């Protein structure tokens, strides 16, 4: 049905009406006192969301641009880095590091499985001469729905003492508790079209004091992505280059909503939606691609065996106007992915499960108990 | 008065209601057939606007990001480049080139004066061994309101034969005729918040076949700004990274408006607004910072002698809610700049001139003939 779209992909995520309307305001000059106030408010609220008293900078860029900035500002050609790779995004940060001539050591895990913190500990413990300058990991691997054990890997990095930890939190920030200051995370990148509940186009990166220390001697070339320029401007409630004014109006509205909900409630909601989704899929005999113990709270990947994943996806889309994501690369046709981050509620989860039930029945999958998925999800909700 | 803002700065420029409302639509997935159609339409209309059958690529970036991409994709460390510098932006491209270890030869002109094409011809003619790999110039220098003689400089580059011409057309594209294919311009960068009539956040770069040839051997590091990735995706009506969906909805609406107006009419309008503005300022004895023969059609810089430029600017803002820009760097307090590009009409020019007249009277400037500015502008309009 026209105009009836329901977005349940890992990004863009649904955008609240208040945010859409805020974005439709006429822009004002970005070098005015009025806009400085907007930047000051955004910066304060971003620090709250990042649980940090350090710097959180805004860039006009996608998540990839932000992660590239997070890497190239703190390293020099030939520096040794460890990169965790258990999915499409981990793989990408390895490519970025190689494109800049870093000495890249990839620590792999199978897609669908988490990175092994022990593998990081081993490499970091071996490194007596402290040659490893950074560890780059993806927290929530969007391609598989796996949440890597950031806390444990970070502990290994802290024991090493020298290396920075650079985190892709693109789909986890705002969906999972990441206490940046408490854990001492050096660089954390994220993007607007995820937990932030605003459309794509804005990226965010938090930077620790230790990372700024590394910045002083880092020699990789950069200009537009030079975070020092962003810090200098942000300290003056300004921006180094023309910022995306209307997206920032949207961000203003969304961060105000997030503050009203509160961090603990936001994280609990994502946890609850994840458990509801998983219970629903289980009740429908749809195998979950990632195990419970490392399930992302942003996205759930489902690997149906009795029916093609793309058929489910396409029926959900055609019959119910619900967009879920397909598998990427070698997982194409093998999984579908339900996004439940940002502006997502219990109602959305009941809806998508109900639609999946109906889809399975429509596709003639045998053994589906009508109502079982929704009932299981509702039960989790009531308990949780 | 609250909410009564009138934007007459060189960017962000005013945004039509149709564009603002288009941006307030709920985003859809960027990897869908429906969004591919949007990208295909945008690409076709961007080629029309750029007067090229070559590639026009869209990046989530400010104008600076786009120009950096335009430079680093086609060059290798140590390559010799000529950079024209007669204002803040020309100066910036020199800094970008240096940040990437290029061998940079700056050709300067005084602020307020255009670059001398002869200076380029001399350097390029001397270069028998064809060591110069690119000439980087700013077409409309936003900081001074000077339009550089792109056509003549480009002829010198074409006579050289080897060097690429890389053009910052951020405030000239859509405000002045730039026939990219006819002139053989290799790389032309521009930004959304200018002639495009949409808010900041999207950048554009056109790339010639000759530039793609250079790309094949260019060795400067890049990933997010790697234009090869954008070309590959654009050829499939897609994007390499999550694109700013809502800004692209806005662009869809604005390009449709531009096609209805027509290129010749758009350029004639900008020409007319420029002449009206200049006639108005002259009639009020307000000196123009750039001479007629090199006046930008995007912005007019005014250098008042009898009263502080910032006083005029501040009164325009406080009394009439009209935002004009101040001077940058050493021109701070010495000039104010009236933007008349994008969604600007004759009515806006009459309005700002009337407000400037009233401001001069309010500030007690002697010798102002009430109505003279508006009359002069109206007369130009009627003739023009």
TrEMBL record, chains A, B:
Top-level division of the source organism's lineage: Bacteria
InterPro entries assigned to the protein according to its UniProt record, in alphabetical order: Aminotrans_V_dom (IPR000192), Aminotrans_V_PyrdxlP_BS (IPR020578), PyrdxlP-dep_Trfase (IPR015424), PyrdxlP-dep_Trfase_major (IPR015421), PyrdxlP-dep_Trfase_small (IPR015422), SP_NH2Trfase/AEP_transaminase (IPR024169)
Signal sequence coordinates: none
PROSITE patterns the UniProt entry points to: AA_TRANSFER_CLASS_5
GO MF assignments: alanine-glyoxylate transaminase activity; L-serine-pyruvate transaminase activity
Short name of any one Pfam family annotated for the protein: Aminotran_5
Domain Aminotransferase class V: 28-328
Binding site for substrate: 337
Keyword Transferase among UniProt keywords: no
Key word Cell cycle present: no
Keywords associated with the record: Pyridoxal phosphate
GO term, biological process aspect, one: glycine biosynthetic process, by transamination of glyoxylate
Cofactor: pyridoxal 5'-phosphate
Coiled-coil regions, chain positions: none
Modified residues (N6-(pyridoxal phosphate)lysine): 194
Role of this protein: Soluble hydrogenase catalyzes both production and consumption of hydrogen from suitable artificial electron donors or acceptors. This subunit catalyzes the tritium-exchange activity.
Family: Belongs to the class-V pyridoxal-phosphate-dependent aminotransferase family.
PANTHER family in alphabetical order: ALANINE--GLYOXYLATE AMINOTRANSFERASE, AMINOTRANSFERASE CLASS V
Subunit relationships: Heterodimer of a large and a small subunit.
Name by which UniProt lists this protein: Tritium exchange subunit
